Records
---
Amino acid sequence: MYALSLIAEGSNQEEFPTRKIYERYEQLTESLDINPLSQRRMSDRLNEQAFLDILGVTDRVGRGRGKGMTNFYYLLEEPKVVQSAIESDQRFSPEQ
């Protein structure tokens, strides 16, 4: 969700595909020295958050023959609100 908020903050788009969110997520985990989830597991987490009405999700979209399907996710709150809530978690504190 944090990765999605960072992408949304710097864009005029509202919805983003799983792949773009995952790419930003990988950058975050690398900078925080955390082992990333697989793209499949992260996609499962995004779907769980959409099911719980934490995120919004549009209908699945085909990417063309043989390329599978993808979901587009969007925030239900402003990016800064999401970032503030996540950054208040002590795991994001530099004093670990």
---
Amino acid sequence: MQRKTRIQPRSNDTFDIDILVILGSFARWVDVGGITPKDGLDKVEDIISEHETYDKMGPETDSPTIIINYANNTKVELVPAYIDNIGEYADGTPAFPKGRGYWIPKRNRWILADYDYDAEYISKKNEETDRYLIPTIKMLKAAKRNLFPEMKSYHLEVLAVNVIPTIVSYLKNKIYPIPSPLLLCGFFCIAKDEVLKSLKIPGSKSSNADNYSIDKNSLAEIFGKICNYCNSLIKFDGREAIEGWRELFGEPFPAYG
């Protein structure tokens, strides 16, 4: 929720909350005797076991997180994290500046996540786009949930950060209005090509947004179909338009009348 791009879950969906548990900081890499991802996970387990309320809830270890399930369909995932005071990866690749970003576990190794910087960057771009960016990201996430759920939310956000400001800038320079349907249509028509590229927030220490198992060609094909679909919807208004957009966004989109 730090990036303010979370959308309301559907009535039967689980509401996921990710919480970083900052356990300290890393100052240097060592060959032996260092803190492993399992050590970090064990430390979080120890912290939970000290609190009877959470311990009774039966927390589950699902590496690299510990999951606590609440009765109201809410799931909290606790992620062990260490502040980066090293300034480089284990192979010596620079990761400046020191003191920014967190080392978190992934696939039994430590990776950098630049959460604070990423959130600030998206907020900055939102202001530069006259606050069109974040509302558009939320609409795109609703479409993702309905049509391409295999894409990770962070990947979609970074893609939107690369595409939406360009569309807004073009429309402003042409002194055109900036309606949401045009932003959504423009996004998918541009993103069908951009999604094939490696994506990263400029200056971020986080891994590339597309650094996971995803079929980019399949995504590009889906985006192309949505682009054509949106182009056809723009010609309609009233009931036809609302029913058409409801097909894109699914259940949360209001029905006509």
